[in-house]
Fold these 2 entries.
Entry 1:
Amino acid sequence: MYMDLLRRCLTRELFDDEDFVFTPARGLTWKGRAIRRALGLAKHPRIVRLIHNPQTLEDKREGVGWPRSAEVMCGSRRLEFLQKTLYAIEQERVDGDFFEGGCWRGGAVILMLAALRAARGHQQRLVWAADSFEGYPAPTENSSEDDKELYEHAAYFRIGRSEFEQNVERYGVHGSELRVLEGYFDRSLPAAPIERLALIRVDIDGYEGVRAILENLYPKLSPGGFVVIDDYLAVGARRAVDEYIAKHQLKNAMHMIPQKQAKGMYFRRER
Ligand SMILES: C[S@@+](CC[C@H](N)C(=O)[O-])C[C@H]1O[C@@H](n2cnc3c(N)ncnc32)[C@H](O)[C@@H]1O
């Protein structure tokens, strides 16, 4: 019950007064896009704030839109799936720590830290929270149009490390299990002192970032461990995952995360 309540708080499913969502340009009609261009506002972060729609309860469950204050944007169905993953890891005694990249405002990391306390598990685990804390990296020649658009909205994704840490503290789960890796993944992960992982949660859309996470961390995943790609249908993320699977000839069965409109995917390392 504690975990369910926590999930509903993190997604704001419980609260009606937090019902605005910033609509990214991607969600605009052609007319909205034209007005935005005509006004020369395409790169202006504040225009995102001017265009808002009420976020329905169903949006909060599905993880549709960009919430104003919720600590997590993936919605409660994908968060519920994360909860089940953590239970499976504990029950099946899969060895290793939990990792999330990027952790943004901290919602999924808060859920992981809470699960460790609630489970009083059989082993000491750490939670690794990784983020640039500066938003998405500048596009490169490998970037898709979607990657470029995310960079345009850098202001929305630029959550400082102190805001992340304050959120963890506000929920009362701050403790010695938390490790923060600050910086873009291609720099922060190669030297990260991570030994073994039971869960790699990837929650970014961009090609380079997803590739860096898989290249550096998959070799550290325990047998039976989970890789969860929260935004597998994003062009860049999908390309990076598919390339990695093909390159390393992974035979793991891939599954979509259950929700009404599938977005995320997961697979487990063979035992
Ligand atoms: C979609 S948000 C994550 C949402 C969050 N996990 C949740 O469940 O609500 C993506 C985050 O990844 C970070 N990020 C994106 N690309 C990155 C990269 N290459 N290296 C480090 N952080 C990155 C951004 O700063 C942002 O905080």
Note: Strands lie at 20-22, 52-54, 66-67, 97-101, 127-131, 178-182, 197-202, 221-229, 255-256, 265-268.
Entry 2:
Amino acid sequence: MTTDKQTLLRVEDLVKHFPIYRGVIRRKVGAVRAVDGVSFEIKQGETLGLVGESGCGKTTTGRTILRLYEPTSGHVYFKGQDLAHLKPEEMRKARKDIQIIFQDPYASLNPRMTVREIIGEPMLAFGIASGKEIDDRVAELLDLVSLDHNYASRYPHEFSGGQRQRIGVARALAMNPSFIVCDEPISALDVSIQAQIVNLLEDLQKELNLTYLFIAHDLSMVRHISDRVAVMYLGIIVEIANRKDVYVNPLHPYTQALLSSIPVADPKFYEEHQRIILEGDVPSPANPPSGCRFRTRCPIADEHCAEVQPVLREITSGHFVACLKVTPIDDQKEVIN
Ligand SMILES: Nc1ncnc2c1ncn2[C@@H]1O[C@H](COP(=O)(O)OP(=O)(O)OP(=O)(O)O)[C@@H](O)[C@H]1O
Ligand SMILES: [Mg+2]
């Protein structure tokens, strides 16, 4: 249970629009509404999985929380401060405590730096250690991610994908953070290696009391690691609930479609659940559909869905859904009476 834990991060109505410019004078002609009003909280020690198709705004959400992208509007409360409105110097200090692990372990490590330089870089940047202290800390971090100490003098190209991601994890841990955005840390790895990295992240979470936002594009990848799961579509969250509710009782038609596309070993599941195949592409986030953004691909949408944009409503305790067709039990009673 996570209810008695303290909230570590609270994201409130976060918006990130990327302006679109045209012409010689670079006139602003519109905006990519990559993140368009996202709210959620993560408790201390918890993992929130963030799932959705390519381009729905997961990375932008993670990067905007860390202020790697400047938020257009909204709040990111973290340990009593609103990160979205911190001055650059204050934000620099806060960065020690919040880190990111990137999707592609091949592109995210500088090929010209040794493992020692890569892992030790944040310590040098913050000026908190030098020389022998860095060597000792690098050795300690290599231990933590189960890599040999002797690897410190080697270069990224000498390692496999899984080993590189361990180096990325060690670098993220260098400053003793309490919160880490894991942006698809296993998507680029072989399936056989994915479980190892997930296990490593879980062990580290217990050992170091870490809190994760774990991003993935399909629900099978976050099933094991998440306490709660948020499902994103075209810049907004359409469903958020604890893990069991999302996998056993998905309520939003988009979550149901995502879930039905995961292969399962249990044949009984196939008998009970029809496979839902989503038609068409995700619409452009520069020009999202009116009303419900999912309506153009939704199997149960009607005219009403084109007019009203649904907001997240609590359907059962802790289970929030943004769909006009899914109503809380109390509302249903009112309609019947
Ligand atoms: N720096 C940027 N400038 C302009 N548009 C951007 C920028 N970064 C992202 N976008 C756009 O914002 C939208 C959301 O992108 P984002 O990378 O956050 O999606 P994602 O859910 O992480 O996708 P993926 O699963 O492919 O990583 C996309 O339409 C993308 O093209
Ligand atoms: Mg991404």
Note: The chain has a mean pLDDT of 90.
